[in-house]
Amino acid sequence: MKENKEEKMQEMKKENKMGTMPVNRLLVSMALPMMLSMLVQACYNIVDSLFLAKISEDCLTAVSLAFAVQMLVVSFAGGLGVGVNALLSKSLGEKNFKEANRAAMNGLFVAIIGAVVFMIFGLFFCEAYFRAQTDVETIVKEGSSYLSICMTCSFAMIAQMILERLLQSTGKTMYSMTTQMVGAITNIVLDPIFIFGYFGVPAMGTAGAAVATVLGQLVAATLALVFNLKVNKEIQFSFAGLRPRAATIKKILTVGVPAMVMQSVGSVMNFGMNQILLTFSETATAVFGVYFKLNSFIFMPVFGMNNAVVPILAYNYGARYKKRMTKTLKLSLMYSFTIMTIGMIIFQTIPDKLLGIFEASENMLAIGIPALRTISISFVLASICIILISSFQALGNGHYSLIISLIRQLLVLLPVAYVFSLTRNINMVWWAFPIAESVALCLCIGYFVRLYRKKIKPLELPLQE
């Protein structure tokens, strides 16, 4: 009996930190690097628009319209990353190292296929996309050149996101933070060089912003690959491992596809809102694009928290550590709520200062100030939804996230925004966001109660608890 106890203690010592480190320290140590790197990501997302706003409002509108398509790439890579993350972390918790390795390699295989599809779009369909929305030639020209470069070279973004998720899945968040920060800083430094033309480089305008973005992603992806090869010993990289295995890909996509579709719904919502706002003016569309750039400073840290919560929950679910799971959820909800409340206060008190960063005209300020104040009411509601959704993803119930996202953005937000637009009062349109977020919160709570009763509550307590 004594020998068995000693063997169990030795096994615990060998266990990944996600099953042994005190929960608050684990959550902070994993989430903080991701949150910091996400903040840097938010900085470089906003830098493009900041520089382009100095050229013209049309350039700013062009990038805003391109955002919906760029979100599709982010949705694919992010959703795939969630699927790989959940399966890999769960397999490590179960000590199934062979399946963990398969998850990593098959995830990379699916990523390659996705990159080819997006490359085809970038080569042949960008101009048609812009002409379907506007007949302003400057917007079509600048937007097409920007989007074509980003989509043709989207393999850089996809590789970066997947390789970083592999580091996060095994708890090596400091390395993923480093890759994101290096990539973002590279982009920020190169932006003015390629946009305005310095050091002998020709001024490229919006195309220059796209080139700087892609180069930053390539640098980050390369560094992430090096880190995976050097320090991620839980995963064995090999060309043979890229051979597809249907059972593993199915497990990845069971969680990943709902996450992809959930995020892609955001792209559809973005496109639909642009169409509604274009009935008012191009400036209204620019305001909407600026809002997304600004809100990334608030949402990105919470998404960083989400990225930490998923592997922690998945690992401890695989290891059947119920107490660690519930504590992780409570702490992450508290941190998320605090961040979003601070963000709401900022948007409520200084919206004019935020818009001023983008050389906002009087017309843009008149539309933007009430927009930021109204939409930011939804922040505190979203803080709860984001964390609860991470539990759905971690426990293999990604379809809950999909249902919530579909209802929130397509069945509530867009229809309400359209109905309110019929009043011809643009300030009414922004109220669609708090209304949609309220509906989403009710759904999140209902699904979480069901999931807790079905999967978390029945778990046996481990010996150390």
How would you describe this structure to a colleague?
With 465 residues, the chain is an all-alpha fold. It has one domain. The chain is 83% helix and 0% strand. The protein has 18 helices and no strands. Helix 2 packs antiparallel against helix 11, helix 3 runs parallel beside helix 11 and helix 16 packs antiparallel against helix 18. The longest helix has 37 residues. The radius of gyration is 22 Å and the shape is globular. It starts with a helix and ends in a 9-residue tail after the last helix. 55% of the residues are buried.
In brief:
The protein is mainly alpha-helical.
Distance linking N and C termini: 19 Å
Our count of domains comes out at 1
The beta-strand count equals 0
Helical amount: over 70%
List keywords for this structure.
18 helices, 83% helix, 465 residues, mainly alpha, globular
Topology (elements, then pairings):
Blueprint: H1 2-14, H2 23-55, H3 57-93, H4 97-124, H5 126-131, H6 137-152, H7 154-169, H8 173-197, H9 206-231, H10 246-278, H11 282-318, H12 322-349, H13 351-356, H14 362-375, H15 379-394, H16 398-421, H17 426-429, H18 432-456
Helix pairs in contact: 2-3, 2-8, 2-11, 3-4, 3-6, 3-7, 3-10, 3-11, 4-6, 4-7, 6-9, 7-8, 7-9, 8-9, 10-11, 10-16, 11-12, 11-14, 11-15, 12-15, 15-16, 15-18, 16-18
